């Protein structure tokens, strides 16, 4: 009866920002990104991509509670970069990786369907 | 302020493709990408499924809700799903979900008029869109049953019973309800790297080797059939430590049992343990434990290659397996795009930054 609608798990409510950003007040170049309506799928790939960045000193994510449909992503960088720059870079790199993956897959698939 | 790129260039090797099944290797990336793709294939690639049912007549033995639920679970061909709209954000019908951009209409009208039980199946569903129809499993080459395919049974009717209804199918994702999941199973495994220490292995007797090979619950190891039962004469070159006139086997294994008397050498140690199928390994550690128990730790070493994955994808038939993978990549790209920082977030921070600098500066 009072069960929340199932779509609440993946539809961002009106007036809520998909990604919000909060600087750490005590640590330089550290910030927390709150990503609404996302889970381990996005959290983990972004975190792992951030770990490849030499300027990232810390990157971690958490899903605070299974019924709170958001993730918190915390990033600390060296002074050469900034959390925002690292975040953008990670997303761009992942996006390019997926473009590459897609063309690889299509190429392989074409090869395979031709043989058979 | 453009940073250095840390992009990877993963590789794919397709091993097998069928309509509803495929197997491929994914290399040069990490588990986070592999797992993201798996999760998306299961829960976030959209398909079309019946979501609303208006029952006109139902005198069958199953109640309305039961039948509606069964209808929802019928897989529908969903090539259109990626380009369709979710009815909740369709502006052509104000979200009531009954227009051609976001829905497909179905009718089902069946009445039993004979004494023979009548099966109402997915084939009785009449679609308003010929591209969105119940999945046809008839050409699935199932050799074990030769009965003509009649679709998925929804309910059975006896004489006089009738079922009449209208159903609306909509686009959705598995995260909302499993009926929208296009995946039957999606799995990936790390590719195992199995190393046999040949020298140590040759210090084992044939019995011990067999024991080791058989300790694995899956058939990962075997005894090389090529080298098995070499009972003929050995390559003879002359053995410095053998009695004069007795030849030496050319084998590289020093502890071979020589039958000097006959001159024939039964090569008991010639049986070679080989890896038959590394992917049969389930990371159960049984061989490693056995090796340890035999006092030969390290005779076999197994590592998971952390950047190589073997995927198995099976679909319900709603989309082709190969299309499911492509759709998953596309959905992941869209998700990444959605989590990009918006301009106002960046701006707000720039102002904050200036304010912070100002405050710090005193
Ligand atoms: Zn609509």
From TrEMBL, chain A:
- List, alphabetically, the CDD domains matched: RNAP_II_RPB11
- Which family is this sequence assigned to? Belongs to the archaeal Rpo11/eukaryotic RPB11/RPC19 RNA polymerase subunit family.
A Gene Ontology cellular component where this protein is annotated is: RNA polymerase II, core complex
Q: What is this protein called?
A: DNA-directed RNA polymerase RBP11-like dimerisation domain-containing protein
Where mainly located?
nucleus
Q: Which residues form the signal peptide?
A: none
Q: Which organism is it from?
A: Solanum bulbocastanum
Q: Which GO terms describe its molecular function?
A: DNA binding; DNA-directed RNA polymerase activity; protein dimerization activity
The chain positions of domain DNA-directed RNA polymerase RBP11-like dimerisation read: 30-103
Coiled coil region boundaries: 84-111
Localization terms from the record: Nucleus
Concerning InterPro entries, the annotation shows: RBP11, RBP11-like, RBP11-like_dimer, RNA_pol_Rpb11_13-16kDa_CS, Rpo11-like
- The answer to whether keyword Cytoplasm applies is no
Question: Which PROSITE patterns is this protein grouped with?
Answer: RNA_POL_L_13KD
A Gene Ontology biological process noted in the UniProt record is: transcription by RNA polymerase II
Q: Does the keyword Nucleus apply?
A: yes
Highest taxon, organism lineage: Eukaryota
TrEMBL record, chain B:
Which InterPro entries does the record cross-reference, listed alphabetically? DNA-dir_RNA_pol_30-40kDasu_CS, DNA-dir_RNA_pol_insert, DNA-dir_RNA_pol_RpoA/D/Rpb3, RBP11-like, RNAP_Rpo3/Rpb3/RPAC1, RNApol_insert_sf, Rpo3/RPB3_RNA_Pol_subunit
Q: Where in the cell is it found?
A: Nucleus
Q: Please provide one cellular component term from the Gene Ontology annotations of this protein.
A: RNA polymerase II, core complex
Q: Where are the transmembrane segments?
A: none
Which residue range or ranges hold the DNA-directed RNA polymerase RpoA/D/Rpb3-type domain? 21-342
- Pfam families cross-referenced by the UniProt entry: RNA_pol_A_bac, RNA_pol_L
Q: Name one GO molecular function term.
A: DNA binding
Main site of residence?
nucleus
Q: List, alphabetically, the SMART domains matched.
A: RPOLD
Q: Does the keyword Isomerase apply?
A: no
Enumerate the UniProt keywords alphabetically: Acetylation, DNA-directed RNA polymerase, Nucleus, Transcription
The alphabetized list of GO BP terms reads: transcription by RNA polymerase II
HAMAP family linked to this entry = RNApol_arch_Rpo3
Describe the family membership recorded for this protein in Swiss-Prot or TrEMBL.
Belongs to the archaeal Rpo3/eukaryotic RPB3 RNA polymerase subunit family.
Name of the protein: DNA-directed RNA polymerase RpoA/D/Rpb3-type domain-containing protein
């Amino acid at each position: 009866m009072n069960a929340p609608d199932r779509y609440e798990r993946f539809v961002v409510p009106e007036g809520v920002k998909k990604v919000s950003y909060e600087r750490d007040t005590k640590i330089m170049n550290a910030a927390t990104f709150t990503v609404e309506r996302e889970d381990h799928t996005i959290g983990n790939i972004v975190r792992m991509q951030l770990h490849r960045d030499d300027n990232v000193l810390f990157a971690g994510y958490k899903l605070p509670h299974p019924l709170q449909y958001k993730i918190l992503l915390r990033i600390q960088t060296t002074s050469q970069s900034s959390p925002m720059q690292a975040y953008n870079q990670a997303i761009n790199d992942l996006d390019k990786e997926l473009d590459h993956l897609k063309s690889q897959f299509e190429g392989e698939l074409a090869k395979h369907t031709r043989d058979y | 302020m453009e940073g250095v790129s840390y992009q990877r260039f993963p590789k794919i090797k397709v091993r097998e493709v069928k309509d509803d099944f495929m197997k491929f290797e994914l290399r040069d990336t990490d588990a986070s990408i592999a797992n993201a793709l798996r999760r998306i294939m299961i829960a976030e690639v959209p398909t079309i499924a019946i979501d609303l049912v208006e029952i006109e007549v139902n005198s069958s033995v199953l109640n309305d809700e039961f039948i509606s639920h069964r209808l929802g679970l019928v897989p529908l061909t969903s090539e259109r799903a990626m380009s369709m709209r979710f009815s909740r954000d369709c502006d052509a019908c104000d979200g009531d979900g009954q227009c051609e951009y976001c829905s497909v209409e179905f009718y089902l009208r069946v009445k039993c008029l004979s004494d023979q039980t009548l099966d109402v199946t997915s084939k009785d569903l009449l679609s308003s869109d010929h591209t969105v129809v119940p999945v046809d499993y008839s050409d699935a080459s199932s050799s074990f049953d030769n009965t003509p395919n009649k679709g998925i049974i929804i309910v059975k009717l006896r004489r006089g019973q009738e079922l009449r209804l209208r159903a609306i199918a909509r686009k959705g994702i598995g995260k909302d309800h499993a009926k929208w999941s296009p995946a039957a199973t999606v799995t990936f495994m790390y590719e195992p790297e199995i190393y046999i220490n040949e020298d140590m292995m040759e210090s084992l007797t044939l019995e011990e080797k067999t024991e080791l090979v058989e300790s694995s619950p899956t058939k990962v190891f075997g005894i090389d059939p090529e080298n098995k039962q070499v009972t003929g004469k050995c390559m003879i070159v002359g053995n410095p430590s053998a009695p004069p006139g007795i030849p030496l086997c050319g084998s590289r294994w020093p502890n071979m049992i020589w039958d000097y008397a006959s001159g024939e050498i039964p090569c008991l140690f010639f049986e070679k343990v080989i890896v038959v199928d590394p992917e049969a390994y389930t990371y159960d550690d049984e061989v490693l434990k056995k090796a340890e128990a035999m006092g030969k730790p390290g005779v076999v070493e197994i590592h998971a290659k952390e950047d190589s994955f073997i995927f198995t994808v099976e679909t319900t038939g709603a989309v082709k397996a190969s299309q499911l993978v492509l759709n998953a990549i596309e959905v992941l790209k869209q998700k990444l795009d959605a989590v990009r920082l918006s301009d106002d977030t960046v701006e707000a921070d720039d102002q904050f930054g200036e304010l912070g600098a100002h405050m710090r500066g005193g």
